[in-house]
Amino acid sequence: MKRIFPYVCCILFAQDVYEGPIMFSYSGSEGGDFNTVVDDSTNLGGALNFFGDDSSSFIMMGVSPQTENDFDLFVAVLQDTSFPVEERTWDIPGIVDPQNPLSAEALLIFLPGLDSTFVTLWLDFFTDTTNINDSLGFDSLTTVFFTELLDDMYLGIDGDLEISEVTDSTVSGNFNCSLWKPLFSFIDIDSAEFHFSRVALPALAVAEKDPVPKFLHLSRVYPNPFNPKTTISYSVNMKQDLEISVFNLNGGKIRTLTNTYHQPGNYSIQFSRQNLPSGIYIIRLQSRTEVHTQKITIIK
């Protein structure tokens, strides 16, 4: 994994997070349309631009729902980029070690018809910005990705990817490529487009000028009801480990939003519905000695 994603094991000095649509049609051994925009409102595509101690990388990732439990997953890893990313064209796969095709300078991966279980893990990691500096978690995720799904991957073997426009807040481009997987299956992607906008990271830092809260408190979630996302604010009165999680009405944990050590102060974090159905859920703030809950409602 370290050869595939060299930034995973380095210290991240800077990172930019983007969200936006990825769209293309594909044909060959399998065919269909890929679009990360769901119900004209929810977007399941985005990108990360990392700068570490010895390299920079730009990752694009998108999920396209096909049926209720059937998804297409697309990932592109562009290594040795500038930071912030600049306009450039990559040959696919670019420079690559013949003994390790996953070391490609422009690594494009496509997985059609993927089960929802793994898609949910991947999507949760990339859409929860509290994970951005969690290199161990990302390393574990990519290890599962490449060890369990390698035989089902289509890998880019020819084509080009262009980042054609970069502004202070957006990145856009296009690509065309041919992909191959074992047993001589192939897919061609034609006239693909992506348009990303920079995402402001949620404020998980202590507000320095605010007075220290007198007690642990979970504020009223706003907006509520919501679609596609809401903000959860809370106050911490002492140094302690805290976990904020989302549960369904049957008591099953749906998602962990944060589970870390907190200094005293005021915090806020965003929660996105992603692929959760409409309905009532429970937000739970838990310390070693206290539990605070609140009902939230997702609407269409």
Task: Produce a short descriptive summary.
With 300 residues, this protein is mainly β.
Give the overall form: globular
Rg, nearest Å? 20 Å
Major sheet, described briefly?
8 strands, antiparallel, barrel
Number of helices: 2
Give me the secondary-structure category.
Answer: mainly beta
Low-confidence stretches: 1-13, 129-140
What proportion of the residues is helical, as a percent range? under 10%
Order of helices and strands: EEEEEEEEEEHHEEEEEEEEEE
Q: Give the termini separation.
A: 39 Å
Strand content: over 45%
Side by side, the strands of the main sheet go 1-6-7-8-10-11-12-13
The total strand number stands at 20
Arithmetic mean pLDDT:
79
Give structural notes:
The chain is mainly β. The chain is 9% helix and 52% strand. The strands form four sheets. It has an eight-stranded antiparallel beta barrel with strand order 1-6-7-8-10-11-12-13. Strands 17-16-19-20 form a four-stranded antiparallel beta sheet, with no helix packed on it. Strand 2 (22-28) and strand 3 (32-35) form a beta hairpin. Helix 1 (116-127) packs antiparallel against helix 2 (135-148). The two termini are 39 Å apart.
Characteristic key phrases:
300 residues; mainly beta; 4-stranded antiparallel β-sheet; 2 helices; 20 strands; disordered N terminus
